[in-house]
Amino acid sequence: MIDYKLLLALLAVTEERGFERGAQLLGLSQSAISQRIKLLEARAGGPVLSRSTPPQPTELGRRLLNHAQQVRLLERDLKAQIPGLDEEGLPERLRIALNADSLATWWGAVVGEFCVQRGLLLDLQVEDQDIGVRRMREGDVAACLCSAERPLAGARSLYLGNMRYLAVASPQFLQRHFAAGLEPSRLAQVPAVVFGRDDRLQHRYLAALGVEGRFLHHLCPSSEGFVQLLLAGMGWGMVPAPQVEAALASGRLQVLPGGEVLDVPLYWHHWRNGGELLAQLTSHLAREAPRHLQA
Asked: Which residue ranges does the record assign to the HTH lysR-type domain (predicted)?
């Protein structure tokens, strides 16, 4: 039989990215949580964490984390029916990976009332839409929003709609670099703004224009900061259409002439046996999210 106190220790260490903070979360000493991890490894027959900084789950650890995530969701349903079962545990926050652009645009409007009505706390992990499912595979999150359609074993994916991106820049930037008109080949020679090393939107846009290879770019891992750099004339970049509506209407930003829009599909991934709460959230997203996304 699995000792779930040992699984809680594994969850705490991975979610808090360290033994000391994981121990604090559970109200334990660092020595005590280390002993729980060692006992879990002895019972599981191998290492569950690599002793790196921060600790990373092994393949065995990821399997245990995936199980623990699903158990925690099912336990929430049971505790609602039998409150006396609630003893030691982690804070009841639903841990979700999603892309920064969704968080900066439609996510809050869609899930806000749902969370208020159910007293649901979220632990949001910001990841690029191309790799969010990796966090779920590693057992780090209970659900994710990403551009990958294929679900993991034991999970389902649901298409919500497309996030529409526009290639934009400030009038000053366009005048400085493209006064005579946009030349696609020159886009690689002037600065772009890229969210992070996993952000491939600008690469896709250039490829659609027939431009391959490396290009100059800033790295800015902030949705708000990304737009601020564009407004400052520091580069061009791909931005969700709703995020720049006001700036386009006022003329502070302009769509690159002759450029195409880029639609990125968004899929909601969730465990099949994730409990009533996750099922309700999935139904809510299926109903409300398409109103904010492109078909």
From this structure: 2-58
Q: What is the mean pLDDT of residues 96-120?
A: 94
| For residue 208, pLDDT beyond 60 | yes
Helix 19-26 to helix 30-44 angle (10° resolution) is 100
CA distances from 89 to 9, 60, 124, 193, 214 (A): 9, 22, 19, 42, 48
**Which structure tokens are listed for 118?**
């159910």
- CA 289 to chain CA centroid, nearest Å: 16
Q: DSSP string spanning 74-89?
A: HHHHHHHH-GGG--S-
Q: What is the DSSP string of 130-192?
A: TTHHHHHHTTS-SEEEES--SPPTTEEEEEEEEEEEEEEE-HHHHHHHHTT---HHHHTTS-E
Separation of alpha carbons 16 and 208, rounded Å? 41
| Fold of the domain built from segment(s) 92-295 | D-Maltodextrin-Binding Protein; domain 2 (3.40.190)
Query: What confidence score (pLDDT) does residue 277 get?
Result: 87
How many alpha carbons fall within 13 Å on the CB side of residue 246?
4
Residue 261: CB atoms within 10 Å:
14
Q: Is pLDDT above 80 for 80?
A: no
**Do the Cβ atoms of 257 and 241 come closer than 8 Å?**
no
Q: Are 68 and 10 in contact (CB under 8 A)?
A: yes
- Residue 237: the pLDDT is 97
Distances in whole angstroms, Cα of residue 61 to Cα of each of 43, 140, 265: 12, 10, 31
The pTM of this model reads 0.80
Supply the CATH classification number for the domain 1-91. 1.10.10.10
